[in-house]
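Notebook entry, structure prediction.
Reason for the run: the old model in the group folder had no record of what sequence produced it. Starting over properly, with the input documented here first.
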Amino acid sequence: MQPIIIIGAAVVGFALLGTGFLGKPWNDIDLWVQELGWGERNLEAPISHAYIDLELKKVRQNGPDGIAKTADDWFANLINACSFHSDQDILGVQDPNLGLADAIIICKLTNEEGLAIAEGRVTLDGVDRNLPTTPKSECIQRADGISNYFGSDKINIDMCQFAFKNSNEVQEIHDVKIIVEGALERMVPTVPTQKVCGTNNINDYCVDGDGIASPNRGTFNLAVGDVLSEFGYGIDDEGIDVFGTASGQWIIGWTDIHLEDDFGACATGIRDGFHDQGFDCVVLDLDASLFDGQDVDCDLETGTAFTACPAFTGLNSIKFHDENGDGVYNNGEDIVLDINGNGIFD
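New structure, fully documented this time:
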């Protein structure tokens, strides 16, 4: 399932772009707010309105001779960053001891077909972005040591993930999408209390046991002491993907699963990194929120993160019980959240 998101699409016309930042009124975005039903209650999106400016930078490119600073060099107009501000607050995690997901603001640059080809994001986690943290290649930025966003402040979101070289060039970009994820503490309903499946386990959480037979959790064959296997093994088989892990965490009752490879159990599946309704086969979707065209967050088989993958090892890692011992997940094998990270179902 897609996290609570707010998307504002603003057509980026080349005629509107100079150097520096785009000016108003073109960047005044009324955001589409998606309210997702959760049982008998709705979750409230964090904001409903935002302004986005685009920072442009001329970057010298080597010409056909491949040598820098020669006569055949040329300049590319690259969208270097999104500048985000809203008149509404975005509250982060108020108790850091709970270990919950922080608020995130993501800027995606999309092409004419609506595909994201460049991205940047900032995390509102109270950490100084200038301190050594996660490598830049992983596209993690910090919002200058703040854990809450207060209305009318500006945050620069640097582009740091690219589909190809110069994918953030002005001529490549058609739309801008802004995704705002409020802090998990404020946006996710109470985690289900039921944990027991198999035989008297008290630690780990059983995610799914019946594969594509139903979108519910189903029944499980696990017994306490069974060894759990890791995902991300690099072999394409079933095309098992997840939705709702953009924060890098598996969220009980929130994250959804499908199969999309027609080589496996889902004969109608289309392996394209999206949910193709009526073709891809649903494994888990407790609130029927999956929709046609929804972006995959993580390919569990290959370990490929389209936005982010949940943990495959350690605490709160997603694993499966390899019942037939072939080393890969097969449809219907039990999927488990290994809460204590010991690799054993307990």
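Summary: The longest helix spans residues 184-187.
The old model has been moved to the deprecated folder.
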